[in-house]
Write a structure and sequence with these properties.
Length: 226
């Protein structure tokens, strides 16, 4: 048995000096500074996981399923082709970074039933109740304020501005001026605090991870692979 891409494609692999993060949709992020990111991190509704041999084996198993679905006519050819191209780029990077022997061992020993892929943290949806119109400040819980208070001294010492932590903003959804306190939900906790970002960790058992980025400082270099 040897590992080959699902038919050859001419996509350049990213440099092997950083880490590749891959979503289950096979959209990817590459960063040369992986220490700035948790194993899983979420952007909007998409969770990216740092690629390792076991995750590669899971992605490959899903491609086998997709290929069978395309052959049976249950998946449109164009949709499978898009997945194939994306997977081949991931495959090329993985072979260059981990080596074929390590990936092959992961594929041979992989059992899909015991693997938990990255899952997006579900947004809590509230049913509106008739009554006085609420302001953005009404959504801030005492627990959220206490969490921000607990890390504010460290964050400020690293260069965060106070409004980036506490600003309520004019809108409850789209205002870019909303601070960290607006993004904390029931059961959340705060993980790593750095100059560039603050990690938000969701409640168990999923403990989905997101990053609240500091727009006032330079961020780690990240580029998309298309």
């Amino acid at each position: 048995m040897s590992l080959a891409a699902l038919e050859p494609c001419s996509i350049s692999a990213p440099p092997a000096s950083g880490s590749l993060f891959v979503a289950t949709s096979l959209h990817v992020w590459f960063t040369s500074e992986p220490e700035q990111f948790a194993r899983d991190f979420q952007i909007n509704d998409t969770v990216y996981r740092r690629l390792d041999p076991e995750y590669y084996a899971w992605l490959r198993s899903r491609m086998v399923v997709a290929k069978k679905a395309a052959t049976a006519g249950h998946l449109p050819p164009a949709a499978f082709e898009d997945l194939r191209v994306r997977f081949n780029a991931v495959h090329e990077w993985a072979v260059g970074y981990f080596g074929e022997a390590l990936l092959l061992a992961a594929v041979r020993g992989f059992r899909s039933g015991g693997y938990d892929p990255p899952v997006a943290k579900e947004e809590v949806r509230c049913v509106p109740v008739p009554g006085p119109r609420k302001s953005a400040a009404d959504d801030i819980s005492p627990e959220a304020m206490a969490l921000v208070d607990s890390i504010s001294e460290r964050a400020l010492s690293l260069g965060w501005k106070r409004q980036r932590l506490y600003a309520v903003g004019r809108s409850r959804v789209l205002d870019p001026g909303r601070g960290l306190v607006c993004f904390l939900k029931a059961g959340d906790r705060i993980g790593e605090v750095t100059r560039q970002s603050i990690e938000l960790v969701g409640p168990p058992p999923l403990e989905g991870r997101q990053r609240f980025y500091n727009p006032d400082v330079d961020q780690p270099w990240v580029r998309r692979i298309r």
